[in-house]
Amino acid sequence: MARNKTRSVSVGPVTIGGGAPIAVQSMAATKTQDIEATVRQVELLQQAGADLVRIAVDSRKDVEALAEVRARTTATLSVDLQENYRLATIVAPHVNKIRYNPGHLWHHERDKPVRDKVAFIAETAEANDCALRVGVNCGSVDPVQIEAHGDDDVGAMVASALEHCEILDSIGFERYVVSLKDSDWRKVVEGNRRFASQRPDVPLHLGVTEAGMLPEGEIKTRLAFEQLVPEGIGDTVRVSLTLPFEDKGTEIEAGRRILADIESGRFRSMPTVLDDGLNIISCPSCSRVENEAFIELAQDVRKITAWAKQHDVTIAVMGCRVNGPGETDDADLGLWCGPVAVNLKRGPELVGSFPYDEVLEHLQRELEEIVEERATA
Asked: Residue 327 phi/psi, 5° resolution?
């Protein structure tokens, strides 16, 4: 397959871009501070064929655990800085790549110019032989870009990515990749096409965020990859699935299966398969999940809403406070899960916060109202 001539970015022993094989990666789904479980999951992902494994840190205790994980594995590690970019200085010595979210970066220390924060991360990465990923998500783009682009949320996402590329280039840091993700595979395709047309030199990390459960999650991801990869777009991929923690290796298997099919000319795309009917979005079971009951909840949501499969309703089930509040806004009904309760939303409005064992009855009631209102209309 023809590939965009992106520059080569080294991430430990792995090369992303520059014509290297497309790298397949995943993210540890365990609590980072649970060192035994995290090391075991990293090993399971390696055994499944992961080129990179990402771990989330959100506190100094997470970083202490990360250091122990690093000491016990030879895996190529990436880290997600979450909302505290200043942790980069103590994280960088233990990893090969750092991912930051421009939207989260904008919200942290708002009195400080974004350029200064990016420079801090880049200088830290440079000093510690780390690569960077500029990870932009439609659901968490900074408000300046959202206001500038109005209803064009894909445009806001692309503009954010381009802005951060310009900042990194201006300070002389070129060892970075970019990701532009959404739970809607169409927006993933559109966003990556737009970006690649303007910056064909920058390696791209492809993925449909919160793709959901099997088989729908793999189908959504396949739809995006089967359009982008044959066009030469994409240098590393992740398939984000809601899975039991023991089964995270399935993400790697699915990614390699999709890429092998594309390379062999075996395309299975059905562009209209997700146009109509009930659409359940759920995030991958990563280390940010604050209550493992989230996974069972997502599966139960699918079961109890099956009756509405012919209705054009989107339900989003998010596992943490990082992506939950913003990325449920565009859904008809959204659930974002905390440690002991689930926040139920109808569009951007909060319906209420309910215990895990009670939220489903409230969700069912809201879904019935939506279906009835639309039928009446």
From this structure: -85, 0
